[in-house]
From TrEMBL:
Record-linked InterPro entries: HTH-type_LysR_regulators, LysR_HTH_N, LysR_subst-bd, WH-like_DNA-bd_sf, WH_DNA-bd_sf
Taxonomic lineage from the root: Bacteria, Bacillati, Bacillota, Bacilli, Lactobacillales
Name the UniProt record assigns to this protein: LysR family transcriptional regulator
Organism expressing this protein natively: Levilactobacillus fuyuanensis
Protein family according to the UniProt entry: Belongs to the LysR transcriptional regulatory family.
Start and end residues of each HTH lysR-type domain: 1-58
Record carries keyword Hydrolase: no
UniProt entry keywords in alphabetical sequence: DNA-binding, Transcription, Transcription regulation
Record-linked Gene3D superfamilies: Periplasmic binding protein-like II, Winged helix-like DNA-binding domain superfamily/Winged helix DNA-binding domain
Keyword Transmembrane: no
Annotated Pfam families: HTH_1 (PF00126), LysR_substrate (PF03466)
Length: 302
């Protein structure tokens, strides 16, 4: 069986305080401190540094984090395999996704998944693209929904191309009345999410030679629409982000088509877990049904 100290270590890293870790594990704070002290004694070096808000990992603690996470994940896979042999279909799935996927895809996917596999627990973390890939690489998340390119060495399944559009105030009409061209964008200001600037939207901005001093940054997709509606500039958003946000704005394609490619990122070891494999199948089935003409070919994971 897995040493309790490993679970304690993992939970402290997640919760960032001994007290919250104790609450999560339903033990006393002194039990948490004792477990950490024993683990540090066994390993021969400190694992945590106390700061104003809680604790953080020492450099040595950061080194062993992926190793301990791998041991925990292997134990979880063993328990899932045993449950499946016994016909229980039990286990858990930890998944990460960016905002528009959390809003538009995950509710129907999770609803159907819970009907099919009620014994499997699902935990969802919303984060940016790079944070999702990093958490999947370390094993803290089993899988993630992100966008290409993915810097980490993971199994990557391209799912669908998501076209990027220009969002304008209602009093703006392109010169050709259909698509936005370089001439339409001259001297315009743009409102973006800062995390998007280094990825897909940057390709469009660079193509049209938009000046950096013409950029303003917002927090989320709905805020971008509100600012565009107020006449503060234009926005650039992908199709998926526009599905459930609203605003009194116009949406036009660019005269050159730009896409972001939404993908599934999986740690190859965690893909072996029965519950993770079931969720991968549920996601790919959903995307295939929703976008029959746009879905990309994807390899088998396992």
């Amino acid at each position: 069986m897995l040493p309790f100290a490993y679970r304690v270590f993992q939970t402290i890293v997640q919760e960032q305080t001994f007290y919250r870790a104790a609450q999560t594990l339903n033990v006393t704070p002194s039990a948490i401190s004792h477990s950490v002290n024993q683990l540090e004694k066994e390993l021969g070096f400190p694992l945590f540094i106390r700061n104003r808000t809680g604790v953080e990992l020492t450099p040595d603690g950061q080194t062993i984090l992926p190793l301990i996470q791998a041991i925990i994940n292997a134990e979880d896979r063993l328990q899932q395999a045993a449950a499946n042999i016994n016909g229980l279909n039990a286990g858990s799935v930890r998944m990460g996704a960016f905002s528009s996927v959390c809003i538009n895809w995950l509710p129907p996917i999770i609803q159907q998944f819970k009907q099919d596999f009620p014994q499997i627990d699902i935990n969802v973390e919303q984060a940016d693209f790079s944070s999702i890939a990093s958490a999947v690489k370390t094993g803290r998340l089993d899988l993630g929904l992100s966008a290409l390119p993915v810097a980490e060495k993971l199994t990557v399944l391209p799912l669908v191309k998501d076209e990027i559009y220009c969002i304008t105030p209602t009093d703006f009409i392109p010169a050709n009345r259909t698509t936005v061209t370089a001439a339409d964008l001259a001297d315009q200001n743009f409102i973006l999410q800062r995390g998007d600037y280094d990825k897909d939207t940057k390709a469009a901005l660079d193509h049209y030679q938009i000046r950096p001093n013409a950029l303003r940054f917002s927090i989320d997709d709905q805020s971008i629409l509100a600012m565009v509606e107020a006449g503060m500039g234009m926005g650039i958003l992908p199709e998926l982000a526009l599905e459930r946000v609203s605003g009194n704005v116009n949406v036009y394609p660019f005269d050159t088509t730009f896409f972001r490619t939404i993908c599934l990122v999986v740690n190859s070891e965690q893909a072996k877990a029965p519950s993770t494999a079931k969720m991968i199948a549920a996601i790919t089935d959903y995307v295939t049904a929703k976008y029959p003409d746009k879905v990309l070919a994807h390899p088998h994971v396992g």
